[in-house]
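Our consortium's second objective concerns turning raw sequence data into structural hypotheses that experimental partners can test. To show how far this objective has progressed, the report includes one record in full. It was chosen at random from the queue rather than selected for favorable results. The single chain below, 105 residues long, was entered without modification.
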Amino acid sequence: MNVGLAIKSIRKKLAITQYDLAEKCDISQTSLSQIETGVKRPSQRTITKVCQVLDIPESIIYIVAMQEADVPESKKSVYELVYPSIKSLALQMVSAEHMELVGAA
């Protein structure tokens, strides 16, 4: 599971700079960069704050963060069949929520 990469993907999808997200989450840009690149693992408090700032449920972060290595071998065929659609739906929900936030929807 790569939570940092998920945060980065969602942040970029919402066109938010690393600096702006870090500032709103009360963490340094360096810390956010280290989280996004996998150098540092985010605390639960940081994940919660990121989700609050981005106005998304934590489950979206975890769905986007899921990787094939997280799936037991016996479930990989189901994962390969279903996960791309689930991830796409989760990212579409992020976009839809953001559009409402900025008043474009």
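The partners drew two points from this record. The chain has a mean pLDDT of 89. The two ends are 32 Å apart (CA to CA). Both points have been shared with the crystallography group to help prioritize constructs.
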